[in-house]
Design goal:
The complex is a heterodimer of chains A (451) and B (84).
Chain A lengths: L2 H6 L6 H4 L3 H27 L14 H12 L4 H9 L9 H22 L7 H6 L5 H21 L3 H10 L4 H7 L7 H34 L11 H27 L8 H32 L2 H11 L4 H19 L7 H28 L14 H24 L5 H22 L6 H8 L1
Helix pairs in contact in A: 3-17, 4-6, 4-12, 4-16, 5-6, 5-11, 6-8, 6-17, 8-11, 9-10, 11-12, 12-13, 12-16, 13-15, 14-15, 15-16, 18-19
Chain B lengths: L2 H35 L4 H31 L12
Classes of the chains: A mainly alpha (451), B mainly alpha (84).
């Protein structure tokens, strides 16, 4: 049986590539318009300088840094979750990993570019090459994000090769692209061995890289002695928040693309149920870290720290702070801990609130500490300008457009991994079950139980 | 596009990956030299360099290994499907 015959069973996975409906062009048109509007305002920022933003003294970091941390956080959806699921041999991972990996690659690129927006003149990035100093945590960020981006892109590309070869063999256009990217894949056992070996190495390597990225991002705050930032738990707190928002983003993307491309046969209720339980656990973990962070600050009662603390709890930022608690903890826990509401609509709603809540969390971390300087200056004000809002919307539009274009050229669900699952999963799981259980079970008994 | 052109582009992409990785490594080494010259958090800088430099090399090596591995283990029959 050749590639075309095997892949015919999974024709639904190629529909987005081989058939382009009107809605695709409408969606691309909308996203391109938003991006063009953001680019136009960004041009204004380049000409006029950062004065067009709401940033001033003492609040010198605003939306751009908030969005930088937020987008990089979402990137943890992909490679990290995918690697953990692969490593733990979770069979239900098969239709999920590709989408997760695509999110990482696109969002990392968007997030990684945000500090350039914050520079005002983008040409200043050249100073990084000529006058950079490793003393600065900002440079640690550059190094770790570049490493994570490189590793994630490779980790996305390698499992994609067999699917690209299927597209090549189906004669899908542009044929040259699939011939170029398939790297001569023919699916021979030795080629499989080479590919699997490398994926396994990367799978292990990518986990510490992913964890290090958000830890290092937290250091740009925690390494300063600024009230509200100088915290020893910021590293793990940021990592937990990143995985939390990443899972929410992954769930939203899965639900939307399942609906748009009719992938109900592949992305089943059980996948959403498992991932939503993971989201629930992360919500509880996030609340635990938030509680620890603010309890120690309050107990310490250090005057400068308390100014920032009350600015968040009962001051100007109180609405955002309590909205964050509502979105990140109360709503998701209420929805996801109840079997009746833990359905796709409920999960979608909870995921949206988590994304809003996590964005608010980044805002609450960045702005209040800067707005309350320790010297005797008045409390600062930060009101984001239309340019900052537009660039935020532009970032989201770039993500959506990127994802849509990826789906236009490559399968969003790993075809070869689905086929591999059909061919060998039951046998493998049966074998694994036998090794877990204390009693010797007959293969037939296990197969019956599995069915 | 002819098979020869595609082959050339594939080799060029591997070369480009190595150029990228080596450029990043050279940049990190230059930062280490600056840190040493300025007595500027040299321990932290070396720590980052020790992790980052081999990491980028590992990524490029992995891609190169897969590329040449796939080329080496191709079958003569070009019509075979790209399935597992």
């Amino acid at each position: 049986m050749n590639g075309n015959e095997i892949a015919a069973k999974d024709d639904a996975l190629f529909r987005s590539i081989e058939y382009t409906g009107k809605n695709f062009y409408y969606a691309v048109g909308i996203f391109v318009t938003v991006i063009a509007f953001a680019a136009f305002l960004y041009l204004g920022q380049i000409i006029s300088g950062l004065g067009v933003t709401g940033m001033a003294q003492p609040v010198s970091w605003g939306f751009y840094i908030v969005n930088f941390v937020f987008f990089i956080g979402i990137s943890h959806a992909g490679t990290l979750i995918s690697a953990i699921l692969r490593l733990s041999k979770a069979e239900w991972r098969r239709p999920i990993t590709r989408m997760a990996e695509v999110i990482t690659a696109i969002v990392l690129a968007i997030g990684g570019l945000h500090p350039i927006l914050d520079l005002g003149q983008p040409g200043r990035i050249w100073h990084l090459a000529t006058s950079g100093r490793l003393q600065s945590p900002l440079l640690w960020d550059v190094t770790s994000i570049t490493a994570y981006f490189a590793a994630s892109t490779v980790y996305l590309f390698l499992p994609l090769i067999p699917d690209i070869a299927i597209l090549r063999d189906r004669g899908t256009k542009p044929r040259w692209l699939y011939q170029f990217l398939s790297w001569g894949w023919q699916g021979t056992p030795k080629q499989h061995k080479v590919l699997n070996r490398t994926i396994n190495i990367l799978m292990i390597g990518v986990i510490p890289i992913a964890v290090s990225v958000h830890t290092v991002i937290s250091y740009i705050f925690a390494m300063t002695v600024q009230p509200g930032w100088h915290s020893t738990i910021f590293g793990p707190y940021f990592v937990v928040g990143a995985i939390f928002s990443g899972i929410a983003a992954l769930l939203i993307v899965m639900i939307v693309f399942r609906k748009v491309y009719h992938l109900e046969n592949y992305l089943k209720e059980i996948h959403f149920s498992y991932l939503s339980i993971l989201l629930l656990i992360m919500s509880l973990l996030w609340f635990y870290f938030t509680f620890c962070e603010y309890l120690t600050t309050h107990y310490g009662n250090e005057p400068d720290e308390m100014r920032v603390f009350f600015y968040k709890f009962s001051g100007d930022f109180a609405p955002y702070f309590w909205a964050m608690i509502l979105c990140n903890f109360i709503i998701p826990v209420a929805i996801l801990s109840n079997k009746k509401t833990r359905k796709i609509k409920g999960i979608l709603f909870a995921s949206f609130t988590v994304l809003i809540g996590m964005w608010l969390e980044r805002l609450i971390i960045v702005v209040p500490s800067l707005a309350n300087p320790r010297l005797g200056y008045p409390t600062g004000i930060y009101i984001p300008s239309i340019t900052e809002w537009a660039l935020f919307a532009g970032g989201i539009a770039v993500f959506m457009l990127g994802f849509l274009l990826f789906a236009k050229f490559f399968p969003l669900i790993s075809v070869w991994e689905i086929q591999e699952g059909r061919a060998s999963s039951i046998k493998e799981v049966a074998h694994r079950l036998r090794s877990y259980l204390p009693d010797e079970l007959e293969e037939d008994e296990i197969k019956k139980a599995l069915h | 596009m002819s098979p020869k052109t595609i082959k050339f582009l594939q080799y060029a992409s591997i070369a480009w990956i190595w150029i990228f990785v080596l450029s990043v490594d050279v940049w990190i080494i230059s930062l280490l030299i600056v840190a040493r010259r300025l007595h500027d958090a040299i321990n932290a800088s070396v720590g980052i360099g020790i992790i980052a430099i081999p990491l980028f090399l590992l990524i490029a090596t992995a891609l190169t290994y897969v590329f040449f591995g796939l080329q080496k283990h191709r079958e003569v029959d070009e019509t075979r499907g790209g399935n597992p």
